[in-house]
Design a protein that fits this description.
Shape: globular
Oligomer: single chain
Distance between the termini: 37 Å
Number of helices: 3
CATH architecture: Roll
Number of strands: 6
CATH class: Alpha Beta
Length: about 130
């Protein structure tokens, strides 16, 4: 049995045009602290993998955001690349400068965020994000 690997070639312009607004809406909701918008933008099974390697479920992350344990003051994009994973999947890898307060400590993070999206009808939904530094 052969396992099909996702296509990691750069996405077509049409995929890029559709994925980037979803990516930016995700960041805007984070900086607005809008957990209701994030609840819609993120798949129910969404996970956020932190730099520590901790894989955090969506519900836990949104609960901590509501409690003020994760506050995103600003997210400045420094570049991004979009890769396809078939007709209904996109991985967007971006570099950001993220000013955030995490568990009471505020700092500016140089984050590399790999966000995996899936298209459901005409909507792109984030399935998971993996955060590392750059």
């Amino acid at each position: 049995m052969t396992t099909r690997q996702p296509n990691t070639e750069p996405a077509a312009a049409a995929d890029h045009a559709k994925a980037v607004p979803a990516y930016r809406a995700y960041f805007q909701a984070m900086t607005n602290g809008d957990t209701e918008a994030l609840d819609v933008l993120l798949d129910d099974a969404f996970t956020l993998t932190h730099m520590t390697g901790y894989v955090q479920p969506k519900t836990e992350w949104l609960t901590q955001m509501r409690a003020g344990q994760f506050v995103h003051h600003s997210i400045e994009e420094k570049g991004s690349d979009v890769h396809t994973g078939g007709a209904s999947a996109v991985r967007l890898v971006g570099r950001t400068l993220t000013d955030a307060t995490v568990y009471g400590t505020r700092t500016e993070w140089r984050l590399r965020l790999a966000v995996h999206f899936a298209r459901h009808d005409d909507t792109w939904t984030a399935l998971r994000t993996v955060a590392t530094t750059w």
